[in-house]
Amino acid sequence: MGIEVGGLLGLIILVLDVYAIIKIVGSGASTLAKVIWVVLILALPVLGFLIWLVAGPSRPATV
């Protein structure tokens, strides 16, 4: 049963990270800030997501 729980947890983390990356790309932050956030989330999936959730760019891009 441990494999199923671990797989489900991994899937949840993947979905949350993809959500965060989509929100980062659509934000109004500078390109450098976007790259730094995406690299942080890819390098540290759980911790990077939590940091982004608290301190990440949250305003939408203006057209």
Automatic annotation (TrEMBL):
Pfam family of the protein (one): PLDc_N
Single GO cellular component term: plasma membrane
Q: Which UniProt keywords apply?
A: Cell membrane, Membrane, Transmembrane, Transmembrane helix
Which residues are in the Cardiolipin synthase N-terminal domain? Answer: 15-57
Subcellular localization is given as:
Cell membrane
In terms of InterPro entries, this protein maps to: CLS_N
Origin, by domain of life? Answer: Bacteria
Q: How does it sit in the membrane?
A: Multi-pass membrane protein
- Major localization listed first in the record, in broad terms: membrane
The residues that cross the membrane are 36-55
Q: What is this protein called?
A: Cardiolipin synthase N-terminal domain-containing protein
